[in-house]
Structures are given as structure tokens and as C-alpha cells.
Predict the structure.
Amino acid sequence: MKLAICIPSKETVHTSFSLCLALLTSKLTKEGIPFELKFNVGTVIANQRNDLVESAINSNATHILWLDTDMHFPSGIVKSFLSHNKDIVAATYSTRYKPLRSVAFTDPDNIDKRLEETIGLHKVWAVGLGCMLTKIDIFKKTPKPWFQYVWNTDTQDLSGEDIYFCSQAGDYGYDVYVDADVSQLVAHIGTKAFLISETNEFN
């Protein structure tokens, strides 16, 4: 196999993500798994992901590991995902804003139904692309664009490019899975403003 680690980013990345990426690449090197790091810096993530796929195909990658720069993940994530031998397998994680919820969706007709299991491998309708392994053949057998934003008439807003990708993959016979075990080790990095009233002196 040959792995393309595809990372859409803006100008900066989180320190925690950088450390996780360093530990991941070190582990891949020790395990003899060939890989290429592919960063795409921009502001339109759907375009960035489409460009990253083209780059991965051109480098003869067999798999893409998708990582977002606001993720914290274990160094053994690739081995965990590969053990399932699925076309698409991902970790779910929390949203960064309240209400905090899983980003793994189980019902295309009800966006509020999310994966709640904490162990095992589970088929879902869609999941965020922050930490996902995909086989490259998916992109060779499905039409472009692989990622785009679509207006959702039910919620009256735009659905993300990750929802579009998972939905289209499903239409072409590719199932989407979530590894609930490894998901317990993945975190979505956010920001919080701390008030003095939250310190021990006031509690």
C-alpha cells in the first residue's frame, strides 16, 4: 500500500495537531508503511479536498488518510483503520460548539440522529472528514466533484462537503463505517474564553 496523508488547512495549524502528526509519521516510518504528506492551503475546503484527491491519485496512492488541522488523534490510527479492511472508515468526534454532539449521522432523513455507541464498528450514513481513511478506488469510480456544498431545504442551510461525499459514496455502493473504539481517543480542538468566576476561588 501507499498512503497519502491529505490535510486541507488555512495558514496555521494547532500545536496539538502538529505533535500528533509527527508521532503518526514516525510510527508509519518504523512500521515500513510508505506515505506522502499532502497539505493544501486555502479557504474553500471543498476545493482543497478535490485538489488533494487529484494529487493522491497522481502519486499512485492506494489510500488517503484525511486529517483536519483541528484534530487530536492517536499515532496508531492508520493501523486501527486498516484492520477493518473497509472502503471508508472514520473516527467520530464532538462538535466544537454547544450543543456538543457526535458528527456521525445515522439517518439521512433525520439529521438529529447521531451515533451514540462507544465500542465496535458501526455503519453510518455520513461522518465528518476530520479523521478518515478512504481507499483511492472510490474516487476513481465516482464522478467529480467528490466534494461540494449542497443546500439543505430541511435545515435551510448548506450541508458540508463531508456529508456530500458520504452521501454520494453511498449512492455508488460504498458503505461508511465508524470505529467507535478509536473514536474515544480522538478530540476536536476548539477554543474557550475562561471567566474569573470559573476559578476555584469563586466555587
In short: The CA atoms of residues 2 and 33 lie 7 Å apart.
